């Protein structure tokens, strides 16, 4: 079967809820993930993404709704579910004082895996993570990007069918992020199901076959990145800066240009299918921005349209 939608469902959430006292972190979330898909939860910090991931991982009990992982309820069948999961937490929790190789071997022992299995497996994972030359180094000597790759390698020691990644590239420089993306692409090619949370629009566009946009514990939209951009935005965006004092007042003078106008504290956005034509209209009205930029629409624009605020505030 070639299409993702025809593959068996490995994660099914129906009206999922999580409450902490009077605070509701996840209000009513439903989604299904077929095997082999790269599925994303996109939203700002505090949207309920990590809480949803903890419920999927079986480390946080839900307050309502239904959830199954490979047909099993993670609350009732925690060990069986976790045996098929790899987890990459938001913060690296490696043992800094032992070697890179020993981090993999010790983690594998928690799954009851034998040393005879783990020795070649650790070498395979170090090659995959491009860390073979660091195998005998202490983790404390690694860069942030290397630690992140080691955390991913460690999560694969039990050959999981599903990999949960919570904000996988937060804090990494662009080069380290792209190396990590390449490793995740390779896992997807092997048939591993990827579930990731992120507030980076470019990461979601690069990695996700499909995603849900989450805000305040609720799903605002669902679809592939390209579908969401087509549905909620225009082909291009014209970004204009008139200066801090002028941005807020120039809106009236820009009315009628493009399909939609958004005024942010630092810039004005004009949504149009042809950004250059929109810019010509702006200058034709005698308005001269300090800077101007024409770019393609992104998931950031989708989120702004749906919630009235930026993904990263």
UniProtKB/TrEMBL annotation:
Q: Which GO terms describe its molecular function?
A: ATP binding; ATP hydrolysis activity
Kindly give the membrane topology term recorded for this protein. Answer: Peripheral membrane protein
Main localisation, per the record? Answer: membrane
Which part of the chain is the ABC transporter domain? Answer: 11-241
Q: Which InterPro entries match?
A: AAA+_ATPase, ABC_transporter-like_ATP-bd, ABC_transporter-like_CS, ABC_transporter_ATP-binding, P-loop_NTPase
Query: Keyword set for this entry?
Result: Antibiotic resistance, ATP-binding, Cell membrane, Membrane, Nucleotide-binding, Translocase, Transport
Report which superkingdom the organism of origin falls in. Bacteria
Please tell me whether the keyword Cell membrane is annotated for this protein: yes
Report the record's Gene Ontology biological process terms: response to antibiotic
Q: What compartments host this protein? A: Cell membrane
One GO cellular component this record assigns the protein to is:
plasma membrane
Which SMART domains does the record cross-reference, listed alphabetically? Answer: AAA (SM00382)
Q: Which PANTHER family match?
A: ABC TRANSPORTER ATP-BINDING PROTEIN, ABC TRANSPORTER ATP-BINDING PROTEIN NATA
What does the similarity note say? Belongs to the ABC transporter superfamily.
Its recorded name reads ABC transporter
Which species is this record about? Neomicrococcus aestuarii
């Amino acid at each position: 079967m070639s299409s993702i939608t025809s593959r068996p469902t490995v994660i099914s959430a129906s009206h999922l809820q999580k409450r902490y006292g009077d605070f509701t972190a996840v209000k009513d979330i439903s989604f299904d993930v077929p095997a082999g898909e790269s599925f994303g939860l996109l939203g700002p910090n505090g949207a309920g993404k990590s809480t949803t991931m903890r419920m999927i991982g079986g480390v946080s009990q839900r307050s309502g709704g239904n959830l199954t992982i490979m047909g099993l309820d993670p609350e009732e069948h925690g060990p069986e579910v976790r045996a098929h999961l790899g987890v990459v937490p938001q913060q690296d929790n490696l043992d800094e004082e032992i070697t890179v190789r020993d981090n993999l071997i010790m983690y594998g022992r928690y799954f009851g895996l034998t040393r005879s299995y783990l020795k070649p497996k650790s070498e395979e994972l170090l090659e995959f993570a491009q860390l073979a030359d660091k195998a005998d180094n202490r983790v404390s000597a690694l860069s942030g990007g290397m630690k992140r790759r080691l955390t991913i390698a460690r999560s694969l020691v039990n050959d999981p069918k599903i990999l949960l990644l919570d904000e996988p590239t937060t804090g990494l420089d662009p080069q380290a992020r792209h190396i990590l993306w390449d490793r995740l692409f390779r896992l997807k090619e092997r048939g591993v199901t990827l579930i990731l949370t992120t507030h980076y629009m470019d990461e979601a566009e690069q990695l996700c076959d499909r995603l849900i946009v989450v805000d305040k514990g609720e799903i605002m939209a669902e679809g592939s990145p390209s579908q969401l951009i087509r549905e909620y935005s225009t082909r291009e965006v014209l970004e204009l800066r008139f200066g801090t004092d002028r941005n807020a007042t120039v809106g009236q003078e820009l009315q009628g240009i493009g399909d939609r106008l958004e005024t942010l504290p630092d810039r004005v956005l004009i949504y149009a299918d042809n950004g250059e034509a929109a810019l010509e209209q702006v200058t034709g009205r005698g308005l001269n921005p300090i800077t101007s930029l024409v770019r393609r629409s992104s998931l950031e624009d989708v989120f702004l349209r749906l919630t009235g605020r930026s993904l990263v505030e």
